[in-house]
Amino acid sequence: MTETIINIIKKVKPAANITESTKLLEDKVLDSLAMIALVAELSDEFDVDITAQHIIPENFETVGAIAALMERLEDED
Q1: How far, in Å, CA of 16 to CA of 60, rounded?
Q2: Distances from the Cα of 71 to the Cαs of 1, 3, 15, 68, 74, in angstroms?
Q3: Is the pTM of this model over 0.85?
Q4: Where residue 77 falls among pLDDT bands split at 50, 70, 90?
Q5: What Å distances lie between residue 4 and 7, 52, 53, 67, 70, CA to CA?
Q6: Tens digit of pLDDT for each residue in 27-37?
């Protein structure tokens, strides 16, 4: 799952050098426009409903945090 998330982030931000431990928000990899695109891509790829309540810094700080969110959302379905 983490490799898929990294590939999605690279699709949204092609110039970004992403690893599993990259601090996506702290290192300013993701800005507001990239977040919108990322949420749409993640929603499509994992077939989950990402609502406004899920879009908080803790859920998007690292690839691992995003993976954990996707797992929680998949479990809800």
Answers
A1: 15
A2: 9, 14, 27, 5, 5
A3: yes
A4: low
A5: 5, 22, 23, 9, 11
A6: 999 999 999 99
